[in-house]
Predict the structure of N-acetyl-gamma-glutamyl-phosphate reductase.
Amino acid sequence: EMERALEPIAGSGVSIVFTPHLVPMQRGILSTIYATPTRGTTVDDVYGAFDDMYHDAGFVHRVDAPPHTRWVVGSNNLLASFHLDEESNTLVALSAIDNLVKGAAGQAVQCANIMFGLDEMLGLPREGWMP
């Protein structure tokens, strides 16, 4: 699913490795996603493409440091950061969501809002419980 979504943006086939982490915590999903970018791609290029894609997305935010799940607990937000290992030409994307909001009920509310022509952020928490 992710590869199909990225192919039109990349203009060619995309191959990624997706690693969700299950750790002893009360809630949240931390994902690590690996991709092989076109040679010469910089992390600034990646952040630029991310910003272009999600500049109007109220719940999708970039962070400059690896995200922590506690930063999203109680919110419908997705936080993402990127690191490019130039030696292996591997892009590592890290994302964090609250699986009980963004990953479940909040996602359903967001989709229903869109289906009924409402503001997609209506009735959804924008701020998490922890800083």
Summary: The chain has one domain: 2-115. The two ends are 32 Å apart (CA to CA). DSSP finds three helices and five strands in the chain.
